[in-house]
Write a structure and sequence with these properties.
Blueprint: H1 2-14, E1 30-35, H2 45-60, E2 64-69, H3 76-87, E3 92-96, H4 101-110, E4 115-119, E5 128-133, H5 135-149, E6 154-159, H6 164-180, E7 185-190, H7 197-208, E8 214-218, H8 223-231, E9 234-239, E10 250-256, H9 259-271, E11 278-281, E12 288-291, H10 299-313, E13 324-325, E14 331-333, H11 341-345, E15 354-355
Parallel strand pairs: 1-2, 1-3, 3-4, 4-5, 5-11, 6-7, 6-8, 7-15, 8-9, 9-10
Antiparallel strand pairs: 10-12, 13-14
Helix pairs in contact: 2-9, 3-4, 5-6, 5-10, 7-8
Length: 360
């Protein structure tokens, strides 16, 4: 009996059970970084991407650690910031601005083990994916609302840079207006900048002084909306719902939704399935949506916009369908033809109904 007891005690002392072995250290969280071209404000381009970053945090908890750098100008500053984020151990870096595309590609060559997502870019590499949204689909829908609501038949458009994405938006907005109001005209003011609230406001005021009673914009702040509220005019919110800034002026908002895409790309890195894909989603993929109507918009107009949105989502309506002419009278698309993506991506003209020229 005592021999058996001694043997048992010896075994307990010298051969501890498996559960007493030290546990493997927990895996380090995946570090994911975001670079923002403007400050984070309560609404606008950067706010929508910030919501996407928060969606990533909510989806993965401790498996992922996110960070961001805001107000980073396009060009050399962007390259420096992106490189610093790669050096800090981030394994996935989102760069959501068109002017970040080339800096992203350059840094990606130096860090082949880091994945990059060039948002609104169109070039890819073995470790660089590209993603954008068909914002022009929402612009067309906003144009329908503006065409129904205008009394002067003149709309204004505050535009950032003359890149294809912005030209697509101006043209689709104009086509949407003229689909319900053939007399409508659109006047454009170019800023050659994305975020400059004082100049955005000044441009809106200039357009109001030129008979525009509704304005749209492709810039990053809420300044145009605030100007419309101040002047008692109408405006189309962009990126975000901006009724908090312009409760009376907003007639509709074209909003962007990045959360699902960002979550799916982080999941792909965690799964080891990430690939340098190219994505160009729109209304059908819920990346763009028209809605958040203001109090001035009749129910009939709201229903019309939502019906056309459903048509776009189902592929029954294509904003760029011929016949189309540019504003110098040249035919750019024959009757009955739907513009192919290659032609949309290379858009470098303004359609009939837009006053002005493409900025140099």
């Amino acid at each position: 009996m005592y021999k058996n007891l001694a043997a048992a005690l010896l075994a307990a002392c010298c051969f501890p059970p498996a559960f007493s072995q030290p546990a493997a250290p927990p895996a380090e969280p995946l570090k994911v970084a975001f670079v923002y071209v403007a400050p984070i404000t309560e609404a606008g381009w950067v706010q929508q991407h910030e919501q996407g970053r928060r969606a990533v945090e909510a989806a993965f908890g401790g498996k992922v650690k996110t960070s961001y750098v805001e107000n980073v100008p396009e060009g050399p500053d962007a390259e420096r910031v992106i490189r610093d984020l790669a050096r800090q151990g981030n394994k996935l870096i989102f760069t959501p601005s068109f002017g970040y595309m080339e800096p992203t590609l350059k840094v990606a060559k130096e860090f082949p083990q880091v994945r990059f997502e060039s948002i609104t870019g169109y070039k890819t590499a073995p470790n660089v994916a590209a993603a954008n949204a068909r914002y022009y689909e929402g612009r067309y829908l906003a144009g329908i609302a503006a065409g129904r609501m205008t009394k002067t038949n003149v709309a204004g458009y505050v535009a950032g840079f003359p890149i294809p994405e912005v030209l697509q938006g101006i043209n689709a907005f104009t086509l949407g207006m003229r689909s319900v109001n053939p007399r409508a005209q659109v006047k454009v003011v170019w800023l050659n900048g994305w975020f400059d609230p004082p100049r955005e406001r000044e441009a809106a005021m200039t357009l109001f002084n030129q008979q525009a009673d509704v304005v749209a914009f492709h810039t990053a702040s809420t300044a145009v909306m605030a100007a419309a509220q101040e002047r008692g005019r109408m405006a189309v919110a962009y990126h975000s719902d901006m009724r908090k800034v312009a409760p009376d002026a907003q007639i509709v908002a074209v909003t962007h939704h990045w959360g699902d895409y960002y979550v799916s790309r982080v999941q792909a890195v965690l799964n080891g399935t990430w690939k340098p894909t190219t994505v160009w989603g729109g209304v059908g993929k819920a990346m763009v949506r028209a809605g958040d109507f203001g109090p001035k918009v009749p129910k009939a107009v709201q229903q019309e916009v939502l019906a056309r949105q459903s048509d776009i989502a189902r592929g029954k309506l294509h904003p760029f369908t011929g016949p189309l002419r540019d504003n110098e009278g040249r035919e750019v698309l024959a009757r009955g033809r739907v513009m192919p993506d290659e032609q949309i991506l290379g858009m470098n003209y303004l359609v009939e109904g837009v006053q002005g020229k493409v900025a140099k």
